[in-house]
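Researcher: Re-running this chain for the archive, since the previous output was lost when a drive failed. Same request as before.
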Amino acid sequence: MNKKKSSHAVRLAVAFATALFIPQIVQAVPSFARQTGMSCIACHTEYPILTEYGRQFKLSGYTLSSEQTELPPLAVMFQPSFTQTNKSQPGGAAPHFAPNSNVALSQASLFYSGRLFGPYAKGMFGDTVGNLLNHIGVFSQMTYDGVGQRLSWDNVEIRIANTGVIFGQPITYGIFANNNPGMQDVWNSTPVWGFPFSSSGLAPTPAAATLIEGGLAQEVLGFGGYMMLSNSIYVDIAGYHTPDTHFQEAMGVDPGGETQVPDIAPYWKVAYTQASGNHSLEVAVFGLQADTYPGRVNTAGKDHILDVGFDAQYQLSLGKNDFTGLFSAIHEWQNWDASFELGNTSNLRDNLWSLKATIDYLYDKTYGAAISYFLVNGKSDPLLYPDSATGSPVSDGFVLQLNWLPLNKSGGPPFWPKSNVKFSIQYVIYSQFNGTSKGASDNNTLYVESWVAF
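Model: Regenerated structure tokens:
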């Protein structure tokens, strides 16, 4: 296999792993809880699943505050873990790791998240300017990846938000800049914040994913705006572009072999949501269109990729019982005008689609369980999917998970309040893996982890 083909295959594998199996970004940040003066369960059921109040907090630009804390908007998180697969991986699960039964620090993160100047804006700039600055909020995460042994920026977003009235209806609106298409979403049914919220980076993963499922995460910068009208109609529109290699390297990102967006890739989402009593429902369409240079090679024209997705989320709270249902389906149209010319694909036109359905349950804000079905499939392409025995991208299976959140109600120790911890046992079961059911169960994965956030 030549280097170009290999690079493209690796890129696809990384994209899918980012979306489904590599530990994802934790949205539950103790600095948010300290800023609002509320416990974690005000914004979350099992974190990072947002409640209705949590969604309003994010729509308000991470700026809602009780004006009680003098602590800076800082937080730290650690994710130690254990991974065991049904079959050992020859040569090691990753560099510096054994073929099986690996203990790792999946990631360690430092957050600066909340009001841009924390509780200090008025003291620094006076009441008038301070009030204006308190409409600016930030979610920023710097992460050390203990598997890849690399420090880099993670999901980062800055927002300016406000509220008003239009045609007699309340409106929340804002603008944002971030580095991951879809990060601005306030539901857990789309890829950036979707289940599983974390998984092993030391297990085999399927080699296909749509671009919107993490394929551009931390490799682009985007700017957009959003509005929530009458607490029912949500719209956000953004555009993303790949920054230069010097900037990416400064952020800890290796740009080698990435899918480059040389122009502007539009992202959009339109949702209808309704909350009533203990119920909330959201249904939406979202999408991404990108003209790209494969592997940053610009000598053969551009590939053209269009992703269109449908997502839905339903939440129900009954006493001590919290139920969340999540669903997403994404179809991708792939025009490989450049990749076909470069010999990276067998077909000039391909398609790919994915589906994910999840039920998450939490009892007494402490004991949780989740089950999720996932499927990715599409047109066979032996060069695009060289690790597939049949040239097909099909993989499917289930993720089963048990959770324990012992501090979820108490909020951690008084000397650094709003801290939290989550212990999880996860098992991934494959029915098909990279185009075949033969040997698929060899990739089944037991993953045990804890999230320690303070």
